[in-house]
Design goal:
By secondary structure, this protein is α/β, with parallel strands linked by helices. It has one domain: 3-Layer(aba) Sandwich (Rossmann fold), CATH 3.40.50.10320. 40% of the residues are buried. The model has no long low-confidence stretch (mean pLDDT 90). Helix 3 runs antiparallel to helix 8. Helix content is 47%, strand content 16%. It has nine helices and seven strands, in the order E-H-H-E-H-E-H-H-E-H-E-H-E-H-H-E. Strands 3-2-1-4-5-7-6 form a seven-stranded mixed sheet, with helices on both faces.
Length: 224
């Protein structure tokens, strides 16, 4: 009996919790529908706790991302280990474009999710640009084509908002998203940040939900 390969969703983000903060509910929905979710994270997020040794934080954040992925039912997390603030130079120096292109060709995702280029965080913008450069190279050589969607953790510019929009009802999966976020215990040690984050996640999902007339939703913009 032939084994049919599951459709794959690929998520490419900067830091270990971005894939939950952004499309976490949508990923949980896709997983329940039988799709597999693969996550690529550019950095270990070692700068999040400057008073700890980088290798200690890296180990902690890898474990947290793996735990969060298990809560969603994902198919694994891969860390590139690029230093924060130096994504562009290190990505090129270490030829990670080949690595990323190989991952895209291996997984053959039906959708790719990544950061919007309107993000205030420079690492988020760098991931957006580097992913698109790699994807566009494959596309131009007619090696692979798929839909690429972006999400914004910190606002969307008007130019992007004119792109086709995808709004996903995550009412049924919102608690799974918040449970996965709880896996990032290292972030709980920054009380005001964590409080703001929880409020922002709830608020964004609520406002997006109003557009579909559902309780909670997540929004994405199709850029490819």
């Amino acid at each position: 009996m032939s084994h049919m390969r599951k459709e794959t969703i690929l998520v490419v983000v900067a830091h270990s919790d971005d894939q939950i903060l952004g499309p976490g509910g949508t990923l949980a929905k896709y997983i329940e529908e039988g799709k597999r979710v693969k996550t690529i994270i550019f950095s270990y997020g070692e700068m999040s706790h400057p008073y700890f040794k980088p290798e200690v934080i890296a180990k902690m954040r890898v474990k947290e991302a793996e735990d969060a992925d298990k809560i969603l039912g994902g198919d694994g997390v891969e860390f590139y280990g690029l230093p924060e603030g130096k994504f562009r130079t290190e990505f090129k120096k270490k030829n990670y474009s080949s690595k990323l292109k190989k991952a895209i060709l291996d997984y053959k995702p039906i959708k790719i999710f990544t950061h919007a280029n309107s993000e205030s965080h420079p690492d988020h913008r760098a991931v957006h640009d580097l992913l698109l450069e790699s994807y566009d190279d494959l596309h131009s050589k007619k090696l692979f084509t798929t839909d690429v969607y972006v999400f914004a953790l910190y606002g969307i510019k008007l130019t992007i908002s004119k792109s086709p929009r995808l709004i996903i009802d995550i009412s049924k999966y919102f608690s799974k998203k918040t449970n996965a976020l709880r896996a990032f215990k290292s972030q709980h040690t920054i009380p005001l940040w964590w409080l703001w984050l929880k409020w922002a996640v709830y608020y964004k999902a609520f406002v997006s939900g109003l557009k579909l007339r559902v309780r909670f939703a997540e929004e994405f913009y199709k850029i490819r």
